[in-house]
Structure formats: structure tokens, C-alpha cells
């Protein structure tokens, strides 16, 4: 009896300590990662509510002494020229990104479905050529695409950007969605067709709702890609009123003396749509993960 | 309900013939099982009837219509899939309602039919659940409900029980049989489990390699298998097939085993052996038709016990005879030890004889 009393507490304590050691190492690592990603964002936010003078001080003001929303007011005020430009760039970006997203979903959904369900000659070959584009750095295509756009008269139009972003986004969108369709048992469609649906109805009523998480993931991917793209927008567009946010912010603020609070406020507002998109749609990602876990 | 006729049905994939000249008639209200090992073409045949894959040649008739070129939705069929294929995003109620909605029935009629089907299958309390919240047996029932809610001309079932555990399978087997009797439904049922086919079906179609080998009642198939494949596939434990040499001397025909013993045949069996294309004859016998003796008796042949498997109410002995394994069932109070010398006596009226070259059953007259 006495031996049991003596040994029993030692084993579990030792084991618990080892687990705790690893757990703490993990926590420290996560905190480090969190600081690494969050600190620049926090600094961006803090700088954006400083005055222009406070932002240039050294040693820096770690916490703004006189916080002000002046930069935001300036950027969002349609009355002054800075605000007009910023709002125009914002809408340009929103237009290009939304159009890219909608078109890429419209093309990727049927393409991915066809690659997943139909056996046709050249299927594998086509599927890999779809990916071929993504095997090269984007910059390689800059000049050829510019010449192409000039030839078809699309330079200095938003259409040139939308087309270009589609060539980046579509291959991965198709690849991603095909994976989703592969995981939806073909018997579901067969059952629907026997239950009285046409092939198209079976797709719309049964397969589409099941692939919603995949479609949303694809859409977010396309949107963010288009929203953040810089080099093509910089090359294809030269008229001030057409610029998208990444180019516009950079060009606009470096022309004057660099207004850091203004730059940071603009950057912060540029990140808002992406963050909102993630927050609103993240439950679909979670659902996609859990559903994948229990099916088959 | 309706009858189904398959006429010279062929399905090829490239050069591969998955279904080879299959012809059979399923009468109105009949329960037919398509049975065979995996890859024998039974599921392909069912999918052809369902219209999920196009026919290469031949005709499919449901009721009085040739349905070859009709969409699945226009064939008036219902199908139960092996993995149930319940719509995961829909509740049980909506799963059952879907076929009715597709046929644009009025809402109150849909409601009435769904509730009626739920009542018949005893799952009224499950109507609001999602398929993933149900057990395997309940999912199976919903799949069955979705088929019967529409009152189709033909029910097609593709291994509906193979995903259930053994106990539930036996229970659902009798439920489906009951379902068939109550509805007088025409059912085509695909299974690789010969026991399901034998216990449930009015007729069974034994398939192998894309060919329909035998189409008859389970009793007939059991008693008169057309070839060695059907003989060994139907019945459990499988029929023992023993390769022997036939010889005739002084008007008497005998079969000789590899160990040198010989078994004199009855006149009827001698007639059958006379039809063989060569001297090679295969003797088939089911476990219950062989008697086991501990000492030599007239007409018995010597064998060696190999394994002994007591199951409680019956003991199965496997013995080595002429290079083949022979299954014998004996009363549990007979004790046999492995490697013990035993003697086997065949019931000449109940043995099967096959041509060793063509593998076809030998017939007298």
C-alpha cells in the first residue's frame, strides 16, 4: 500500500510537467508569431491617428499624445482633392476586384465541374495547361501582356486588369473547386436525376449548395489577389482617374512631402474590405473543414 | 408497377465488354436479384436500366415503353444506392419531399405523402434531422423512403445493405422483403452476397464476366447450377468441387481420385459422365449431402481431415480429397481430429457432375 502511495503521484506529475513544457513552448511561439504579424498593423493604426509632426518625432511617441482623426477626415472628404482621389481609387479597386471575382467564379465553377465529372479527350492535358501559367513568375508576362493589351486596345482600361487577374486567379480557382467536386459523391447527382431532376437541375439544386464553401474560398482568393495587385496596375494604367488603390496610394503620397499619417490611414482603410470579407465568410471555411472531416 | 425486359443488352467501354448480351424478363411485382462477384457487370446492368449510362446496343423495356433514350427522370424508376446518396444539406423531410417537388405536386399532397412514408417506415420522429445525424440503419430507411414515396414503376437497389453491420443487415433484409410483399413492387436488386439473393429474391440472375449465366428461382439455381461457377458461388459453405478421372470397364463407369481410389457411379450418373468431352470430370457435392464415416463402408472413399470448425449446432469438417478441399457438415457429437483418416460417402442422387474441360453441368439424356 505504502509503495503505491509513494509512486502514484510521481508518475503523473512528471508526465504533466513534460506536456506543460511543450505547451508553453507552443504558446510562446504563437505569441511571437502574433506579435510579428500584429505589431506592424498596430503601428500602422497608431501612426494614422497621429498628427504629421508627431509621426516624424524621434524617439517616437509610442502612444499618440494628441490622437486625431484628421487624416481619415481628409481622405474621406469628397470636397478636397485628396479625398476625391482616394475615394476614386477605392471605387476603382472595388470595381476591378469585384468584376474579377464574379467572372472567375462564373468561369471556374463549370470548368471545375467538367474536369471533375466528365471524361473527354485531352482532359488531363488541358488540366495541366491550366496550371502552366502559375509555374512562372507573374513578371515574366508583364511585357507580352502589355503588347497584347495594346494590340487589342485595352491599355488604360480596367478591362485589361480584369482580364489579367483572371489569368492569375482562374487556374487556382479551377484546381481548388475541382477538389471540392471530386469529394461530392456522383451518386448524389444520380439520385437527383432519378428523382426527377435534369442534369442541370441536379447541379444547381444539389451540387452547388454543397460546394458553397469551395466557391466562397475561391471568390475570396480571387478578390484578394486582384485587390492587392500592384505591378500590372502600375504598368497598364497611366491616367490618374483610373488608378487602383495600391498604385494610387503610392503615387499620390510620394508626390507631396510624405504624409505618413495619411499614408497609414489609407493603408488601413485599404485592408478593411479584406478583413471584413474574412470575418463575414470565415464560418464557411470552418464548415468546409468540418464537413470534409466526417464525410467518407 | 410494371415489368422490365432486357433484350440483348450490351455495354462496352472502349474494347472492354462490361455487359455482354444480357437478356432477361422481370415480371410485374417480381423481386429479382442480380448477383455475382465484383466486376461481373451487375451494377453496370442496373445503371443501364436506370439510364445513368448509355446503352451500347440492345433494348430496355419498362412497362410497354422502350426507354433506351429516355432520361432517368422520365423512366418512372426509383433507386436506392449503396451509400444511400441522401442529400446532406437537406433534412429527412426535404429528402423525402425532393422527388415529389421535382414532379411539381401540390404542397399539401407532398406533405401528406412524406408523412405517410415516414409512418410506414417508422421514422416520423426523424423528419427534422439531417442525414449526418442518423445512424446507418436510419439512413438506409430514409433512402428506402425516398424511393417509395413516389410510387414508381420499378425499384432499383444497388447493394443497399452492404454498408450495414451484420445484425442490422439481417433485420433490414426481412424489412425489404416485407416491403416487397406489401407493395407488390417490381424490384431489381444488385448484391454480391448470394445469401441476400437466395433469401429475398423470387428469381436470381447469376452474372460473371459480363455474362448472365443462369436466371431462375433460387431453389432451381441451388439445385441445378448450370456450371461450376454458379455451383461454387451459390450456397454457403461453397459446394466442394473435386477433379476426378472417369473410366469405364465391364459396362460400369467409375471416377478415380488422385489417391488411387475409385467410386462406382449409378447408371444415371454414368449416363451423364458419358456426355463429357474428355475423361476429366468434376464431382460437386454440398456439405450436407456427404456422410462422414470413421471406418470404411461400401461406396465410401478415403480422405484426410484437415480442419474442424465447431459452430455449436453443427460442426464443419474440411477434408482433403484428390487435391481438393471438401466441406462436410456433421453432428457436433461426432468428434474428428485434424489429420485423422476418415471415409466419405456421397449421395449419388444429389451429387453434381461437371465437364472438366467446359466446366458446364453434365446432363443425362
UniProtKB/TrEMBL annotation, chain A:
TM annotation in the entry: 24-46, 94-113, 125-149, 161-181, 202-224, 260-281
Transmembrane as a keyword of this entry, yes or no, is yes
Question: What positions does the domain ABC transmembrane type-1 occupy?
Answer: 90-281
Q: Where in the cell is it found?
A: Cell membrane
Query: Membrane topology per the record?
Result: Multi-pass membrane protein
What the protein does comes down to:
Part of the ABC transporter complex MalEFGK involved in maltose/maltodextrin import. Probably responsible for the translocation of the substrate across the membrane.
Q: What is this protein called?
A: Maltose/maltodextrin transport system permease protein MalG
Q: Which organism is it from?
A: Mesorhizobium neociceri
Automatic annotation (TrEMBL), chain B:
Major site of localization recorded for this protein: membrane
Q: Where is the signal peptide?
A: none
Q: Report the membrane topology from the UniProt record.
A: Peripheral membrane protein
Determine if Transferase is one of this entry's keywords. no
Keyword field: ATP-binding, Nucleotide-binding, Transport
**All copies of domain ABC transporter, residue ranges:** 4-234
Protein's UniProt keywords contain Transport: yes
Q: Which GO terms describe its biological process?
A: carbohydrate transport
Which InterPro entries has this protein been placed in? Answer: AAA+_ATPase, ABC_transporter-like_ATP-bd, ABC_transporter-like_CS, ABC_transpr_MalK-like, ABC_transpr_MalK/UgpC-like, Mo/tungstate-bd_C_term_dom, NA-bd_OB-fold, P-loop_NTPase
Q: Which domain of life is it from?
A: Bacteria
A GO cellular component annotated for this chain's UniProt record is: ATP-binding cassette (ABC) transporter complex, substrate-binding subunit-containing
GO MF entries: ABC-type transporter activity; ATP binding; ATP hydrolysis activity
PANTHER family found in the cross-reference section: MALTODEXTRIN IMPORT ATP-BINDING PROTEIN MSMX (PTHR43875), OSMOPROTECTIVE COMPOUNDS UPTAKE ATP-BINDING PROTEIN GGTA (PTHR43875:SF1)
- What's the name of the protein? ABC transporter ATP-binding protein
Q: Which organism is it from?
A: Mesorhizobium neociceri
Organism classification: Bacteria, Pseudomonadati, Pseudomonadota, Alphaproteobacteria, Hyphomicrobiales
Amino acid at each position: 500500500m505504502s509503495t503505491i502511495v509513494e509512486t502514484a503521484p510521481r508518475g503523473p506529475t512528471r508526465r504533466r510537467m513534460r506536456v506543460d513544457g511543450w505547451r508553453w513552448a507552443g504558446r510562446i511561439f504563437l505569441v511571437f508569431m502574433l506579435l510579428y504579424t500584429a505589431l506592424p498593423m498596430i503601428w500602422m493604426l497608431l501612426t494614422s491617428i497621429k498628427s504629421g509632426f508627431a509621426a516624424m518625432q524621434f524617439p517616437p511617441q509610442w502612444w499618440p499624445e494628441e490622437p486625431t482623426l484628421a487624416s481619415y477626415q481628409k481622405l474621406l472628404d469628397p470636397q478636397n482633392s485628396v479625398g476625391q482621389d482616394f475615394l476614386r481609387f477605392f471605387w476603382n479597386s472595388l470595381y476591378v476586384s469585384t468584376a474579377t471575382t464574379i467572372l472567375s467564379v462564373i468561369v471556374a465553377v463549370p470548368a471545375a465541374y467538367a474536369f471533375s465529372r466528365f471524361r473527354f479527350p485531352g482532359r488531363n492535358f488541358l488540366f495541366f495547361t491550366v496550371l502552366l501559367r502559375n509555374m512562372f513568375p507573374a513578371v515574366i508576362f508583364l511585357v507580352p501582356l502589355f503588347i497584347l493589351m495594346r494590340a487589342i486596345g485595352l491599355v488604360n482600361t480596367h478591362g485589361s486588369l480584369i482580364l489579367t487577374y483572371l489569368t492569375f486567379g482562374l487556374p487556382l480557382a479551377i484546381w481548388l473547386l475541382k477538389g471540392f467536386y471530386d469529394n461530392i459523391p456522383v451518386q448524389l447527382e444520380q439520385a437527383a436525376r432519378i428523382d426527377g431532376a435534369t442534369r442541370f437541375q441536379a447541379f444547381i439544386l444539389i451540387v452547388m449548395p454543397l460546394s458553397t464553401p469551395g466557391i466562397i474560398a475561391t471568390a475570396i482568393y480571387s478578390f484578394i489577389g486582384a485587390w492587392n495587385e500592384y505591378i500590372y496596375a502600375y504598368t497598364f494604367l497611366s491616367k490618374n482617374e483610373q488608378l487602383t488603390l495600391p498604385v494610387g496610394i503610392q503615387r499620390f503620397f510620394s508626390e507631396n512631402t510624405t504624409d505618413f499619417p495619411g499614408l497609414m490611414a489609407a493603408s488601413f482603410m485599404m485592408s478593411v474590405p479584406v478583413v471584413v470579407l474574412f470575418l463575414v465568410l470565415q464560418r464557411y471555411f470552418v464548415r468546409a473543414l468540418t464537413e470534409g472531416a466526417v464525410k467518407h | 408497377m410494371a415489368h422490365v425486359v432486357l433484350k440483348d443488352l450490351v455495354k462496352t467501354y472502349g474494347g472492354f465488354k462490361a455487359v455482354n448480351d444480357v437478356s432477361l424478363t422481370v415480371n410485374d411485382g417480381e423481386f429479382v436479384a442480380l448477383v455475382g462477384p465484383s466486376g461481373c457487370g451487375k451494377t453496370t446492368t442496373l445503371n443501364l436500366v436506370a439510364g445513368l449510362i448509355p446503352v451500347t446496343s440492345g433494348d430496355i423495356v419498362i412497362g410497354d415503353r422502350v426507354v433506351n433514350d429516355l432520361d432517368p427522370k422520365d423512366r418512372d424508376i426509383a433507386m436506392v444506392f449503396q451509400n444511400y446518396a441522401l442529400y446532406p444539406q437537406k433534412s429527412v423531410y426535404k429528402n423525402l419531399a425532393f422527388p415529389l417537388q421535382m414532379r411539381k405536386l401540390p404542397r399539401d399532397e407532398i406533405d401528406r405523402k412524406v408523412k405517410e412514408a415516414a409512418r410506414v417506415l417508422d421514422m416520423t420522429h426523424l423528419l427534422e434531422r439531417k442525414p449526418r445525424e442518423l445512424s446507418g440503419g436510419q439512413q438506409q430507411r430514409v433512402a428506402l423512403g425516398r424511393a417509395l414515396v413516389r410510387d414508381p414503376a420499378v425499384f432499383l437497389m444497388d447493394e443497399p445493405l452492404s454498408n450495414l453491420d451484420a445484425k442490422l443487415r439481417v433485420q433490414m433484409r426481412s424489412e425489404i422483403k416485407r416491403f416487397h410483399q406489401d407493395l407488390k413492387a417490381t424490384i431489381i436488386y444488385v448484391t454480391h452476397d448470394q445469401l441476400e439473393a437466395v433469401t429475398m429474391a423470387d428469381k436470381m440472375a447469376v452474372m460473371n464476366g459480363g455474362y448472365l449465366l443462369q436466371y431462375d428461382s433460387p431453389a432451381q439455381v441451388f439445385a441445378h447450377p448450370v456450371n461450376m461457377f454458379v455451383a461454387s458461388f451459390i450456397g454457403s459453405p461453397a459446394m466442394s468441387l473435386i477433379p476426378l478421372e472417369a473410366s469405364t470397364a465391364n459396362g460400369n463407369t467409375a471416377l478415380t481420385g488422385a489417391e488411387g481410389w475409385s467410386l462406382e457411379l449409378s447408371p444415371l450418373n454414368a449416363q451423364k459422365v458419358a456426355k463429357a468431352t474428355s475423361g476429366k470430370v468434376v464431382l460437386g457435392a454440398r456439405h450436407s449431402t456427404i456422410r462422414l464415416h470413421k471406418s470404411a463402408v461400401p461406396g465410401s472413399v478415403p480422405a484426410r481431415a484437415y480442419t474442424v470448425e465447431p459452430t455449436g449446432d453443427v460442426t464443419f469438417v474440411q477434408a482433403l480429397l484428390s487435391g481438393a478441399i471438401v466441406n462436410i457438415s456433421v453432428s457436433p457429437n461426432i468428434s474428428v481430429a485434424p489429420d485423422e483418416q476418415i471415409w466419405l460417402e456421397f449421395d449419388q442422387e444429389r451429387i453434381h457432375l461437371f465437364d472438366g474441360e467446359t466446366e458446364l453441368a453434365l446432363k443425362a439424356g
